[in-house]
Design brief:
Layout (H helix, E strand, L loop, with lengths): L6 E6 L3 E5 L2 E6 L5 H33 L6 E5 L6 E3 L4 E5 L7 H4 L1
Parallel strand pairs: 1-3, 4-6
Antiparallel strand pairs: 2-3, 5-6
């Protein structure tokens, strides 16, 4: 996460995901279900992505605003072949897999 390797720690409990002491701690009702663990982690990644991606866009948008562009609307997606894209309709789509890399990769 954010360029730091984490050890996956899965156990039974109320659904939650957190990072602590080098571990990605995943608590799900069915810890033996790969689908349940994956779903919990993806939901957590989306929650983490939105504020980080919005911050990156905000920090870099000044130059584009000076050129007369309007700020795009962020969409966080799970993409197979792209890191991101910008549509003519004003949407910036960013791959949530960018969270696996150091912050500089996002910028």
């Amino acid at each position: 996460f954010r360029g730091q390797p984490l050890i996956l720690d899965v156990s039974a409990g109320r659904s939650s995901v957190s990072v602590a002491g080098g571990y990605l701690q995943v608590r799900v009702a069915e810890p033996d279900s790969e689908a349940a663990v994956q779903q919990a982690v993806e939901r957590w990644l989306r929650q983490q992505a939105r504020p980080l991606f919005e911050d990156s866009i905000e920090r870099q948008f000044g130059w584009f605003a000076g050129q007369g562009y309007t700020r795009p609307v962020l969409r966080v997606k799970k993409m197979r072949t792209r890191w991101g894209s910008l549509s003519a309709k004003g949407y910036i789509n960013l791959n949530m897999a960018l969270l696996h890399y150091p912050p500089a990769a996002l910028d």
